[in-house]
Amino acid sequence: MLTEDRETLLYLATGVLTAMSDSSIRPFTDVSRDPFVRGFLHPPATANRHGLVLTHGAGSNCQSSLLIALAEAFAGAGFMVLRCDLPYRQDRPFGPPGRGGAGRDREGLKYAVAALGKLVPGRVFLAGHSYGGRQSTMLCAEEPELVSGLLLLSYPLHPPRKPAQLRTQHFPGLQTPCLFVQGTRDPFGSIEELESALQLIPARNQLLIMDGAGHDLGFKGKLRNQELPAAVLSSFQGGFL
Questions:
Q1: pTM score, whole prediction
Q2: What residue numbers bound the domain in which 37 lies?
Q3: 131-142 and 102-117 are packed helices; what angle lies between their axes, rounded to 10 degrees?
């Protein structure tokens, strides 16, 4: 079995190129509790005292171009950003989450929030793309005081072509303010379907519509939606700060 130090080195090696591209970005690891918190920290040049935990979807990891772009935008606006891998992705470099592992992924997000909370004196927010966003909402429905707000990117309202299989059972218990970001071409939920679902949430919520974007919000392969980070940041600041 590898020692923890060697495991950490192997994990961090996946982020070497990203860290080298911006010397302010540094690897972050907290192994004080299981599941561990592992990812990358984006310190702000001029801090606004607040922090954002940012995580990925089911088929991705914290090195996705969408997460990196958003982390850079929020750090540029003064947030301390922790871009982290969910526990299932730490366990396996490829593939979807395993059955029965969602609870552990939520626990990992809870520990990530706690870890970032030790680094900032202000409020902590939680953000996730797709599966990461869904687990974030489920966690906050269970623990409404955990974070000050949620940023939900391409919420997977239902599986593609299965609109009856809604993933909204926990929405009536969600007391945390939310900003949803959804593309008009997302097969996991249309704008109309999401607008209807948001009526179930008692907390204050807002929907930012990205015209022409799919589930990847314009970040696929080498494609980069240059307008998205600024638009998300502006809506977030207007809604939460």
A1: 0.91
A2: 4-89+109-240
A3: 80
